[in-house]
Amino acid sequence: MSEEKEPEINRILQNYGDALYRTAYLLLGNPHDVQDALQETLLRYLEKAPAFVSGDHEKAWLLRVTANCCKDLLRFQKRHSCLDLDGLQEQLPAPEEQHLVLELYTLPVKWKTVLILHYFEGYSVREIGAILGITEAAAKKRLQRAREALKRELSS
Predict the structure, then answer these.
(1) Are 63 and 117 a contacting pair, CB within 8 Å?
(2) Which end of the chain is more exposed for a tag (fewer CB within 10 A), N or C?
(3) How far apart are CA 4 and CA 74, in angstroms?
(4) In whole angstroms, what is the distance from residue 130 CA to residue 57 CA?
(5) What are phi and psi of 133, to 5 degrees?
(6) Which domains can be identified in the chain, with CATH numbers?
(7) Measured between alpha carbons, how far is 101 from 49 in angstroms, rounded to an integer?
(8) What digits encode the pLDDT tens for the residues 116-149?
């Protein structure tokens, strides 16, 4: 990495690192894959050098790229199964949430993504639609289906 880019990467990691890491970890469940996804996100940021209207726009772009990088890694994981749940227990604040997050892993990626963005990152349905590049109605429907699926998993 060139020295001129280093302060920019440090700023991104300082401002958004926790949210990006948390999102990637909840989607992937493997700290090694999380590091790969975050590195790929930062590389794409450096390659594209996008202009952002605001900090929220920048965060949304980074979250979307992170989710896309995670999807790419999950495609790979389908062929090479590896899920490290040991570190997950350290990431969660309360034991009762551990069961919930473990059940989250059983859901399809598109549902996990909307649940993470809504409940862990605090985005509205409208904002989720913008981040994922789908309509607000589609984001709302995904969130509804994800909730229903998670409820079914938790009740069984």
Answers:
(1) yes
(2) C
(3) 33
(4) 10
(5) 75, 35
(6) 1-91 (1.10.1740), 94-156 (1.10.10.10)
(7) 34
(8) 888 888 889 999 998 888 999 999 999 999 999 8
